[in-house]
Amino acid sequence: MADILTPALGESVAEASIAKWTKKVGDAVKKDEVLVELETDKVSLEVVAPADGVLSAINAAEGDTVVPGTVLGAVTEGGAAAAPAPAAAPAAAPAASGGAAVDIAVPTMGESVAEGSIGTWLKKSGDTVAKDELLVEIETDKVAVEVSAPAAGVLTIIAADGATVTPGQVIGSVAASGAVAAPAAAPAVAPAAAPTSAHLSPAVQRVVSENNLNPASLSASGPKGNITKADAIAAIGAAAPAAPAAAAPAAPRADQPREERVKMTRLRQTIARRLKESQNTAAQLTTFNEVDMTNVMALRAQYKEVFEKRHGVKLGFMSFFTKAVVQALHEIPAVNAEIDGTDIIYKNHYDIGIAVGTDKGLVVPVLRDADVLSLAGIEKGIAALGRAARDGALTMDQMQGGTFTITNGGTYGSLMSTPILNAPQSGILGMHNIVQRPMAINGEVKIRPMMYLALSYDHRIVDGKEAVTFLVRIKELLEDPARALLDL
């Protein structure tokens, strides 16, 4: 018998959570086949079979916390020969389970995520489901987790819509005995039902049902040919012009209550809690300056076409700001530090958080090692993080470990703001709208494209002189981009 052990998890990582077992007890396995996925606060790890044989024991269930060296399970060697029998008789496999139900359990939902809320089930108890068919989405304070059917059969729901659940909790089951009868019983209705349930996420299903949309008429732009929430919302907008001709102007108001109470999503609750905690913990102060964007805009206009042809990505302002921020952090290290108890941790790496607005709220994915990236590398990295954020595909690792944050309210037209620190970081830069304003230039009044900059900082670490110097340095590097190239 060969033990399946938790491997070393990396520097300063003391524990991990069982994310998912890919096999169950009694299954045949091959040496080096992935058996279980572990999640830590930094990375996801795969644990493989130590030998050929049969998975004879699982000692740690999904959701359990383990440490390096923990015995996760065992493989009995030499038992692989018995495993091919089920494959030789696929038609009999569902009946062989004897009607035994396969539990649907809440998966591990990431570091420090202790609970989630059940969304809208896409099937109801008694419905026939296919293996790996999407059944429900669990919403947490950080991400939305999709739960699929573990087997083909008949669904039984235990946890209702809106229920609060924890990792490992059983929320339903699938009776495998129902898999045989389902194809014969429901061929007539299956084609009509599939577009509205099997291929729509809960968020899309909600938009479709609330607006009486026909899923078959929606164009799909998702990465796997699936209909996204944006597709559904776009269909509402496309149908909107026909509404005035069919209904009186007052009709929409007649159907709307004067007030509506809606429970905050877990992501929104977490955003609210973390922002308030940040205000309560740090001694936050904001300093302002303004930057003349003339030279950056001229440089961008001159090279944007050749830049895009060469690198396959557009040249935006964020790469210039990121470069300026990194250079300023080199010179004022306190802004790239954090407090841990009575210690100050100075970071010698430059992982820049880029605030991104999504339909579910604000997220801050992290651009790693920005100090070694070119302008093109920064633009590509930011574009990839933005797409992942809007598609809901960000990983936990991509949202953790930033040392400084940049937020751009200018994309929404903000002229000036006081951004709140992204704890435990000690600084955040707020960019704003570029506005043509009259400025005194060498004794003459000229119209220049100006942007207000705001640096919010933790006064416990960063002194006022350092904060002002930091922001002035960014202003200098943006008003004269050649300084950054020449390291001046």
From TrEMBL:
Domain named Lipoyl-binding is located at: 1-76, 101-175
Which residue numbers delimit the Peripheral subunit-binding (PSBD) domain?
Answer: 199-236
Which cofactors does this protein require?
A: (R)-lipoate
Q: Coiled coil: which residue ranges? A: none
Organism domain of life: Bacteria
Alphabetically, which GO biological process terms does the record hold?
L-lysine catabolic process to acetyl-CoA via saccharopine; tricarboxylic acid cycle
One GO molecular function term? Answer: dihydrolipoyllysine-residue succinyltransferase activity
- What is the reaction catalyzed? N(6)-[(R)-dihydrolipoyl]-L-lysyl-[protein] + succinyl-CoA = N(6)-[(R)-S(8)-succinyldihydrolipoyl]-L-lysyl-[protein] + CoA
- Gene Ontology CC: one annotated term: cytosol
Gene3D superfamilies linked: 2.40.50.100, Chloramphenicol acetyltransferase-like domain, E3-binding domain
Task: Supply the InterPro entries for this chain.
Answer: 2-oxoA_DH_lipoyl-BS (IPR003016), 2-oxoacid_dehydrogenase (IPR050537), 2-oxoacid_DH_actylTfrase (IPR001078), Biotin_lipoyl (IPR000089), CAT-like_dom_sf (IPR023213), E3-bd_dom_sf (IPR036625), PSBD (IPR004167), Single_hybrid_motif (IPR011053)
Q: What is its EC number?
A: 2.3.1.61
Which pathway is recorded for this entry?
Amino-acid degradation; L-lysine degradation via saccharopine pathway; glutaryl-CoA from L-lysine: step 6/6
Keywords, A to Z? Answer: Acyltransferase, Lipoyl, Transferase, Tricarboxylic acid cycle
State what this protein does. E2 component of the 2-oxoglutarate dehydrogenase (OGDH) complex which catalyzes the second step in the conversion of 2-oxoglutarate to succinyl-CoA and CO(2).
Subunit (UniProt)? Forms a 24-polypeptide structural core with octahedral symmetry. Part of the 2-oxoglutarate dehydrogenase (OGDH) complex composed of E1 (2-oxoglutarate dehydrogenase), E2 (dihydrolipoamide succinyltransferase) and E3 (dihydrolipoamide dehydrogenase); the complex contains multiple copies of the three enzymatic components (E1, E2 and E3).
NCBIfam families tied to this protein? PRK05704.1, sucB
Record family assignment: Belongs to the 2-oxoacid dehydrogenase family.
* Name under which the protein is recorded: Dihydrolipoyllysine-residue succinyltransferase component of 2-oxoglutarate dehydrogenase complex
Q: Which organism is it from?
A: Brevundimonas naejangsanensis
Q: What is the lineage of its organism?
A: Bacteria, Pseudomonadati, Pseudomonadota, Alphaproteobacteria, Caulobacterales
Q: What gene codes for this chain?
A: odhB
